Amino acid sequence: MKLQHLTVIFVIIILPITFIMSVYMQAQVDTIVLQSNYSAKLLDATYDAIKAFQLNTVNNRYSSVSDSKIRDIEAAINTFYSSLTTAISISEDNLKQFTPAILLTMYDGYYIYSRRQNTESGQYEYGLKPYVYYAARYKKGNTDCQISYTLDNAITVYGTVNGKEIEPQTGFLVDPSSFDLDTRNKIENGNLDSITSIEYNGVTIQEEQLQETLLILQDATQTEPAKVVKQTYPYTFYDNRKVYEESEGVYFWYSDFRKMYVQDEATRNYARATMHNNRSALEYYISAYQFSVWVKDNLGDLTMHDVYDKEGSVVEFEANQTGEERIFNFNSTTNNPEKTESTFNTHRTAVIRESIESNMLAAFANYNQYINTNYDYRMPILSQTDWDKITNEMSMTTFLQGLPIKNKFFNSYCSLSNNKNKEFVSKSSIILLGSDGNYHKPNCKLIVNGSVDIVGAYTNLSIARQTVKVSENEIYYFYPQQKTNEQPYLNCYDCIVNIADIYDLNQLIDGSITQDNMVDGTEEEIYNENALKEVRSVYFTALAREKYNLYGSKLHFSP
Asked: Of all helices (H) and strands (E), which one includes residue 200?
């Protein structure tokens, strides 16, 4: 066969194959590009929803009220759909069939937004399903009780304990052995008013003075026009509300950016007694000690094998199993409830994960029945990092499935933390005010090294910019925490931007910061408990104060 013939045969056979492969490869590249594009847009839309919720939370002083909170959640979901429909050029009605579920974890439970059947009309529609608490049932001996968990160390116990039907008991869990002997004796003997400081976990918790800058709207009078006045006031908490002091003996609530003067004597007496020596942090640890002792004495023998479902069968946990370890037998080594790796916390996250997984699987299974499509919607396998986020922080997890892209279907999810809200005070939400005029994380090297003195400590929400809208053309902004020259604090570049300039927060909480030894790979301690004492004292005080003031009205414990 001549060379020309072979060339013709080669061209006839190879060129079509090359063309087909080229088209195929280009299709694969286009698919990958679209997948990356959709993943980025899903992330952006979820982030927009989180920011919408945070914005509503910061400027809505009634966001902790149930109806108002649901409105904020629904507004966040609407923002998600609005953002995503704009990004991928699809109508909201069409987009919703590709979002089988949205998970929103709150402080003590979670919502699932999905397609559901309206009980009144019988029609299927999208909406929030009933709120689900993080709860588990425990049966052992003559104890048969329910325990509801939260995203931190607070629980509620109700049911039968040691053969006795109890009223719901709610409180925070701590390690009783971490308190100094003097404090334990005073609490157990009922001498609570004599406690002016507490030694806990190697640090001192004391009374403190709090202050905040407010923007006050003053209505017009016959002699003065309407105006806006910014001023700093000391404050305390009464019945989970801030009470401010205008002058000695004159107190007010801050409502709709105006002063509402306190008239009832009970509030005035409490404000007079605690305005300049706030005891919130002390009250947190006193009540936590009492509740923890009761829980340990009555539920100290419970293990994960004592958890039962509604049908009376033992629950098999697939993740974070605690084995035979006793969940509520607190100690300072392996089971301090305030530490991440404790037996209690490991079990708490397992309970939350099991509840969410079972209900999400049901939501996806039901969605396949409600939606008219050939695509099989299934809950994806979430990464351990995302589960850690979901079980320890308020978060939003969105799912986008079945969206056609070239010759495939898009299937992904996005999980983001909601770290600025009025529902939950997390370990990482405490921000320190530095003498250098900057905000710092408590584990910032400048703070821990002593290069910058600590001026105060509040939550990230307490330092967020506030907006006062008088009219469409008259809008004011202010910061509740500001420097004495009326300038706002700025973010510390070293700890906010450069992650290398912060230490591990859990190590700071434990009181010992270590780093890897480059020679033999072992961990070398670089700061001991004494060097960290001041930072830890301020941090624990602020965390306890903010928790107690946010959740105090929900605590119901009768020892």
From this structure: strand 197-200
Q: Are 542 and 550 a contacting pair, CB within 8 Å? A: no
pLDDT at 8: 62
CA distances in angstroms from 477 to 85, 214, 390, 474, listed in the order given = 32, 10, 33, 10
The C-alpha atoms of residue 382 and residue 380 are separated, in whole angstroms, by 6
DSSP string, 337-378: TTSTTSHHHHHHHHHHHHHHHHHHHHHHHHHHHHS-SS----
Where are the extended beta strands (E) located within 364-447?
395-405, 408-417, 430-434, 438-440
| Domain coordinates in residue numbering, the chain | 3-130+386-417, 134-203+281-344, 209-260, 427-554
Distances (CA, A) of 192 to 177, 259, 384, 409: 18, 33, 43, 63
Place of tokens 């069968």: 313
> Which residues of the chain have a pLDDT value below 70?
1-33, 58-67, 119, 318-323, 485, 516-521, 529, 553, 559
Element (H, E) at 490: strand 490-491
Q: Which amino acid is at 541?
A: T
Please name the residues in contact with 247: beta carbons below 8 A apart, sequence gap of 6 or more.
none
pLDDT given for residue 211 in this prediction? 92
pLDDT tens track for 56-68: 876 655 544 556 7
Helix or strand run (H / E) with residue 283: helix 280-299
**Residue found under tokens 């699932």:** 112
What is the predicted pLDDT for the residue at 379?
Answer: 92
Q: At which residue do the structure tokens 């003053």 appear?
A: 218
Collect all residues with Cβ–Cβ distance below 8 Å to 61 and sequence separation of at least 6. 255
Closest by alpha carbon to 426, among 319, 546, 259?
546
pLDDT at 150: 96
Helix, strand or coil, per DSSP, at residue 111: strand
Beta bridge partners of 112: 103
Contacts of 368 (CB under 8 A, 6+ apart): 376, 377
- Cβ partners under 8 Å of residue 3, min gap 6: none
Please tell me the number of Cα atoms within 13 Å of 177 on its side-chain side.
Answer: 10
Question: Which amino acid type is present at position 438?
Answer: N
What's the pLDDT at 47? 95
The three-state DSSP-derived secondary structure of 184-223 is HHHHHCCCCCCCCEEEECCEEEECECEEEEEEEEECCCCC
Six-digit token string for 501: 């300039």
- Asked whether the CA dihedral 16, 18, 20, 26 is positive or negative, the reply is negative
Task: Name residue, tokens 């351990």.
Answer: 384
